[in-house]
User: Fold this.
Amino acid sequence: MNQNTPNLLAAGQPRYLVLAQALIEDIQSGRYPLESLLPTEHELCQQFNVSRHTVREAIRRLSELGFISRQPGVGTRVKANQIASRYVQASEGISDLFQYVRDVRLEIRGSEDLIADESHADLLECRVGQAWLHVKGARFIPNERRPLSVTDVYIARPYRGVIEELDNPTLPIYALIEQKYGVMVVEVRQEISAVLIDGEAAVTLGSEPGSPGLLVVRKYFASNDELFEVAVSLHPGDRFSYSTTQRLQRWGGTEAR
Assistant:
């Protein structure tokens, strides 16, 4: 058995885990090669003498581990023979939010001067005609070849000179702006929405067209509510998740337990 693969078998384990483990071993042995289709639910029920519910739970587990992808009307396709890398961002506050952009490497793939039109005005919270620098890139987890996200960063015109620092950035862009211009981030607003990945983004991310993704929009504000950077990142749903912890503070400043 591959040493990087968790053994799902143990005394008293549910039958779906036993089935999932058997399918993992079949995938890693080459019985089901990459890009091949697994047997149908009905066929697996017959082969392993289990219920349809057991089969569905086993398939769900393999999907969570990144071994397979399910395509309506096509079937269940083998996508990996080892556990897929997955970035989980946990957040309890603004420092944890910044940790994400420190954890991953941003590869710059192009830039252009942009004059905001109506389609940009809402995103950038600006008037039509305002100038921005648009930086295109992709983010990578260390030692991973597939991008974790495709990212568009919009930088307000007064800070356009930061482009000189972006050849091989070792700091997040907001930190480079702080360093170069003496501004300081005082607030970050973040929105996360579910989307479908299509077109060029699907090709870049190595995702199936129409597969689920997470769109993360972060807006960085300096003092006086100045919005100086907007970062828009599109993540494959099977390679990124976001968790948050909020602690309730009682009146008087004590923490609720």
Confidence is low (pLDDT under 50) at residues 1-11, 86-92. The chain has seven helices and ten strands. Helices lie at 15-29, 41-48, 52-64, 94-103, 118-124, 173-181, 199-205. The longest helix spans residues 15-29.
